Amino acid sequence: MQEEYFKKKSKSATIILYFIFGLTLLLSIFAFTNIDSVMVKPLVVDENPVISDVIIVLGGGVVKETRSLPWSVQERARKGIELYRENYADNMILAGGLVAGASYTESEIMRAYVELLGVAPGDIFEENASRSTYENAVYSKFIMEEKNWRTALLVTSDYHTERACQVFKKLDINVICLAAPPAPSFENDFFRNIIDSRSILREYLATFYYRLKGYI
Which one of 93, 94, 147, 177 is CB 3.0 to 4.6 Å from 56, fit for a cystine? Predict the structure, then answer.
């Protein structure tokens, strides 16, 4: 009886070790190779900007501990600011609703960030009701219709552009889709590679789910 117990324990330990080894190997591949740059290609839509009525920057979470934007959302915001400074549009919609477990919205934190970097407060419009990419599109469309805006530049992370673009266009929103590139300081950063790879894998699952739901 005791011998059987130790055999089962040994088998469980072996399975755990194999799992740890496999996970370590997978993380090493993501961290120290360019596999994410291959995986992301089917997810990217990056068009040429044209003069439009508004720039829509999609949120992607908030770091609650510091009440700040994660890297990817900072990159989205900076891409939107770049287009604003180059006079592609005079207005900006910042899209992101209530942060889970908090009393403030993503759009509120994004507003503080873009204002700090020079966007005039009167040119900023907050879409603060959404909880998903689909709702980003629904509520951004409400703002556009209210302001009689017909064209938009849609800015998000490269891995998110394909799905976001399809959602907006399915709702008959006239958008040009633009990818916000990772900051050069993150080039060959193994931790960033892991984070991005996780986001890319999640995006494939989200795209499948959105197809099932008929959102794209």
Answer: 93
> Strand pairing partners for 127?
95
pLDDT for the residue numbered 195: 79
Nearest Cα neighbor of 196 from 71, 74, 36 is 36
pLDDT digits (tens, 9 = 90+) for 156-210: 999 999 999 999 999 999 999 999 988 776 566 666 777 788 889 899 999 999 9
Q: Tokens standing for 112?
A: 């503080």
Average pLDDT over residues 21-27: 48
Q: Are residues 94 and 195 in the same domain?
A: yes
Q: Is the pTM of this model over 0.90?
A: no
How many residues does this entry show for the chain? Answer: 216
User: Domain residues for 17?
Assistant: 2-32
**Nearby residues of 105 by Cβ (< 8 Å), 6 or more positions away:** 96, 97, 98, 99, 126, 128
Distance CA 13, CA 136 (A): 46
Distance from chain centroid for Cα 31:
20
Residue 19: pLDDT above 60? no
Q: Which residues pair with 156 in a beta bridge?
A: 179
Q: Which H or E run contains 154?
A: strand 151-157
Number of domains in the chain: 2
For 100, the 3-state DSSP assignment is coil
Say which residue the tokens 């117990």 belong to: 5
Same domain, 74 and 147: yes
